[in-house]
Amino acid sequence: MTAIPQREAYGRALAEYGAVNENIVVLDADTSSSTLTHFFASRFPDRFFNIGIAEPCLVDFGVGMALGGFVPFVNAFAAFLSLRAIEQVRTCIAYAETNVKLVGHYAGLSDFKDGPTHNCIVDLAVMRALPNLTVIVPSDNHQIINWLPVIAEHPGPVYFRMSRDKSLPVHPEDIRPVIGKAIQLTDGTDVTLIACGTMVGRAMQAAGLLASQGVSARVLDLHTLKPLDVEAICTAAAETGAIVTAEEHSIIGGLGGAVAEVLVENCPVPMVRVGIRDRFGVTSLDADSLMDYMGLRVEDIAQAALQAIKRKSFQGDPV
Amino acid sequence: MNYLTETTILELDEIARNLRIDSLKMIYKRQSGHPGGSLSAAEIVAALFFYKLRLDPHNPKWEDRDRFFLSKGHASAVLYAAMARKGFFPEEDLYRWGNLDCHLQGHPDRVKTPGIEMSAGPLGHGLAVGAGNALAGRMKNKKYRVYVLMGDGEMQAGIVWEAASVASKYHLSNLTAILDYNDVQLDGPVHEIMPLEPLADRWKAFNWHVIEINGHNTRQVVEAFDLAEEIHSKPTLIIAHTTKGKGVSYMENDSRWHGAVPKADQYELALAELGKEVG
């Protein structure tokens, strides 16, 4: 399951899980051939609803189905779900506490070919600001597959972020993710690389690169942006003394913002954010080269780690 | 279709009159609220809560209850008044509206108030949520019906028409929408702010069954609800022509009373007029 894109792992797993949980209904906004909910649609046509290009109505219609006792998985491109339909998400899901599972597809830069209008680099900032909403960014296909039952059985609204592209495998097949509990992938003593989504694999590669330079880096997969695993962040800060965040998202308001808030209030240590630095992307020929272009290279993470480590010596003596 | 005796109709009229009085008392006590759209919907809300809806106030989550979604959430006063009268919560709660520890919010809140089906406030949500709920009911072989009360201002919102398409696509005949067409919105007359006509034709073009009535004629209101149940292939919209601020002379058809609170002398006059109406 590592050679296929995240969306395909999701689409196939959702169709499998649909056989287990008959309360699952799937809604899409004319993107089922992109989100790959069409696997579910062809297997369970009576539980699939294509609402067309009408994301606000898609969300509210899903709310109505949740009130009627179903567990709706509401699928759309992240850019449109988190922006065009955000008032519906705010009022009818987050505020009204309805049991809707929002799945934002083609997130980050993964829709490289369609350009910045279809990229989504702000969804985590937007969703994270809403009370009551759980925000999850899966890092690889094994995690996606194992998240589905967890999300479905969680009694409350969830935003689940999905890349169009492949992500590097980092977890075993039997990974059992828990909402709000970060996963430590490697231990280290000099710095902690905290990543989510597609950047977890890159953070692991950066840890390897740093090891070759004699730097010991811990890697945390912080898959849940809300509720945040404050304890894991503070433990990492205390034990390694420097933090780097890495996300396929703006450095404003997403993983980097969330971790910075925790550090400043609880356990301040030097920190550097790797992410998209407050600018829109461009159109590209493939996702990897776009991520590289936007400053998300493995080398960028390693460089950020060295910067953060270097700043440790300034603690208390910022001359 | 049930034929209602004149006595029953008069009883519903009396409830509507009291819902108007309660709404104004609540708004005056809180010094905040939306009188115009509460008064225009009084007969509709009375007919729903005291004739049509199958509800159990002691078991607000009863699985087989009919579902009522107030899409024009700013008319919360008339909804709260009806729900208290029905027994969902004590009537004294109506006069604690707005207190920090009172469950009644400015706009309806499904989490805080028992019996509220859906939180509302921003306009345009009710029909899409109601459509999803109607489909869920049908899939679960439930006999409940879904009622959505909309305002005319929200007809200007795109999502209403998105929902109209979806309800039509899935032939949601267990969905009845009611339009409180008082032709007044916050900034002025609806036909000036953003005209809706030909409204009935627009809904028919979206493949809805449309019934037009006088929304202050209780017999027409209840018969429209009954008739909607006989339509088995498509959702029904009841266009209820109403008067904003109905029953209080100086409020009628005046957009300034969309969300304003009467002064003491105005309040006394309003209550006197409502008292005289059937007296």
Describe the structure.
- The complex is a heterodimer of chains A (319) and B (279).
- With 319 residues, chain A is of the alpha/beta class.
- Chain A has two domains: 6-161, Thiamin diphosphate (ThDP)-binding fold, Pyr/PP domains (Rossmann fold); 183-312, Rossmann fold, CATH 3.40.50.920.
- Chain A contains 13 helices and twelve strands.
- Chain A has helices at residues 6-20, 32-35, 38-43, 55-67, 78-83, 86-95, 123-128, 141-153, 199-212, 230-240, 255-266, 287-293, 298-312; strands at residues 24-28, 48-50, 71-77, 101-105, 134-136, 158-161, 183-186, 191-195, 217-221, 224-226, 243-250, 271-276.
- In chain A, strands 2-1-3-4-6-5-10 form a seven-stranded mixed sheet, sandwiched between helices. In chain A, strands 7-9-8-11-12 form a five-stranded mixed sheet, sandwiched between helices.
- In chain A, α4 (55-67) runs parallel beside α6, α9 crosses α13 (298-312) and α10 packs across α11 (255-266).
- The longest helix of chain A is centred in the N-terminal third of the chain and has 15 residues, at 6-20.
- Chain B is an alpha/beta fold and 279 residues long.
- Chain B has one domain: Rossmann fold (3-Layer(aba) Sandwich), CATH 3.40.50.
- In chain B, 41% of the residues lie in helices and 12% in strands.
- Chain B has helices at residues 6-30, 35-40, 42-52, 76-86, 126-139, 158-169, 190-193, 199-205, 218-228, 264-277; strands at residues 67-70, 146-151, 175-181, 184-185, 188-189, 209-214, 236-241.
- In chain B, a hairpin with a 2-residue loop joins β4 (184-185) and β5.
- Chain B is globular, with a radius of gyration of 18 Å.
- The mean pLDDT of chain B is 96.
Which key terms come to mind for this protein?
heterodimer; A: 319 residues; alpha/beta; Rossmann fold; 2 domains; seven-stranded mixed sheet; five-stranded mixed sheet; 12 strands; B: 279 residues; two-stranded antiparallel ribbon; globular
